[in-house]
UniProtKB/TrEMBL annotation:
Source species of the chain: Stachybotrys chlorohalonatus (strain IBT 40285)
Designated name of the protein: Uncharacterized protein
Domain of life the protein comes from: Eukaryota
Keywords, sorted A to Z: Oxidoreductase
Organism taxonomic ancestry: Eukaryota, Fungi, Dikarya, Ascomycota, Pezizomycotina
Protein family per UniProt: Belongs to the short-chain dehydrogenases/reductases (SDR) family.
InterPro entries found in the cross-reference section: NAD(P)-bd_dom_sf, SDR_fam
One GO molecular-function entry: oxidoreductase activity
SUPFAM superfamilies for this protein: NAD(P)-binding Rossmann-fold domains (SSF51735)
Length: 433
């Protein structure tokens, strides 16, 4: 990041994400240029430049960068947040007129590409201490086709591809490229319930990184809801820790989130959770082995190793206290592995997973657990998809990681990760940033 006043350019500064991102960077000492069709230059704040422009004409991008560089300086952070879509009959998605598709592509992809191209020309003039980051606000459409918004999906998919290519191509120069996609904690899209503050927080974190690092990242993968635990079998002190207890469980559902491959849905056939307690009584450790079965009768084995804080909320459930109630997330983390001889599920054997968990108590008093599981993705030096969480958001659910299990802002680039800030689209509407 520059030592004096770095410059951020927000293309598509709407009332939610765009304005939150602009405010966040202004608060960090950036000079900020915001661009939208409805922008009012006369309402600009200190250190802010407001520009009115239309992204349906990619030729306008050159003029925007020229004006920003002349009045504020070379942008070291460029955010492309503009988009449009033309909802169609999902049973007839190709009825969209070609002219509408062309205009949509101009806004969703071609102008974004032009902006990335201009951003690179500027990055080449900036010192290595500058952030030199381009981030594209995406959604789940690049991995989960939605026929009723075909044009938006075409644009997001194309843009995700050029972002990945740029992240890989410019990684040695330290230029960062991200595709942002906000998701709920269980990996589902947030549709129109977009958390602008979560985006802003996540974008600032990405901007502070000197390069797209090699650290592994998380890809939302599946959820687990298990139950049926009524019996507890004390084993006694063992070589692996004090006081082992075996807790069988007999039901539950394990289901992949939209966009994860391979897709699956399993039921728990049977499983046992082996619980030990550390000598200092502060943590408990779990080793779960379960047999899972799909609708076709194919079996896989799941192993979970976990550690939990022995908070009173947790201890009551483990001990089977009659007044125990479901505990919140925040006490327990796990690592997970699969084994299967079936070709459809073989890819799972080559993956490691991590999750957060909460212990639950059903109305009938039986104990269980709920897990939000992500695949661990290795870092490559170019991480186009990063993640983060929003109040109901984690890229991960972002502003506050808590009860409204946050959506998550994820960012990915090249071979590594693309910043996924997934936007939930519950309504059918046409919007242009």
């Amino acid at each position: 990041m520059s030592t004096s006043h770095p410059v951020a350019l927000i293309l598509g500064a709407g009332s939610n994400t765009g304005r939150h991102v602009a405010a966040a960077f202004l608060a960090q000492g950036y000079r900020v240029a915001t661009v939208s069709r409805s922008s009012k230059p006369e309402e600009a704040e200190a250190n802010e430049l407001r520009i009115q422009s239309d992204f349906s004409d990619p030729g306008n991008i050159d003029q925007i960068f020229t004006k920003v560089e002349a009045e504020l300086g070379i942008p070291e952070v460029v955010v492309y947040n503009a988009y449009t879509m033309n909802p169609q009959n999902a049973q007839d998605p190709l009825a969209l007129p070609v002219a509408d598709l062309v205009q949509s592509l101009n806004i969703n992809t071609v102008s974004a590409y032009a902006a990335a191209q201009k951003a690179v020309l500027g990055f080449q003039k900036l010192p290595e201490t500058a952030s030199r980051m381009f981030i594209y606000t995406g959604n789940i459409c690049n991995v989960a086709p939605m026929p009723f918004i075909l044009d938006l999906g075409v644009g997001k998919s194309a843009s995700a591809h050029f972002i990945q290519c740029a992240a890989e191509g410019y990684k040695d120069k330290g230029f960062k490229f991200y595709y942002a996609d906000e998701r709920t904690a269980d990996g589902a899209p947030v549709y129109h319930d977009i958390d602008g503050a979560a985006h802003a927080k996540h974008f600032l974190e990405l901007a502070k990184g000197s390069r797209q690092e090699n650290f592994p990242t998380l890809e939302p993968a599946f959820t687990i809801r298990s139950g049926g635990a009524t019996s507890r079998f004390p084993v006694g002190d063992t070589s692996v820790g004090g006081g082992m207890t075996a807790i069988p469980f007999y039901n539950g559902v394990i289901e992949s989130v939209p966009g994860f491959s391979p897709a699956f849905k399993f039921n728990v056939s049977n499983g046992i959770d082996y619980v030990t307690v550390d000598k200092d009584q502060r943590h408990g450790r779990f080793n779960v082995k379960a047999v899972l079965t799909d609708e076709e009768g194919r079996n896989v084995v799941l192993n979970i190793e976990a550690i939990t804080e022995l908070h009173p909320d947790v201890v009551g459930i483990i001990d089977g206290a009659p007044d125990a109630k479901s505990a919140p997330f925040g006490y327990c983390v796990e690592q997970l592995r699969f084994w299967s001889g079936h070709e459809d599920y073989k890819p799972l054997e080559a993956m490691y997973f991590a999750s957060s968990q909460r212990f639950t108590v059903a109305p009938d008093g039986t104990a269980g657990a709920e897990l939000r599981v992500s695949r661990i993705v290795s870092g490559t030096g170019s991480t186009p998809i990063a993640s983060s969480v929003s109040s109901a958001v984690t890229s991960s659910n972002a502003p506050s990681v808590a009860p409204r299990v946050a959506p998550r802002v994820v960012s990915r680039s090249g071979n590594g990760l693309l910043a996924r800030l997934q936007h939930r689209m519950k309504g059918v509407f046409k919007v242009q940033g």
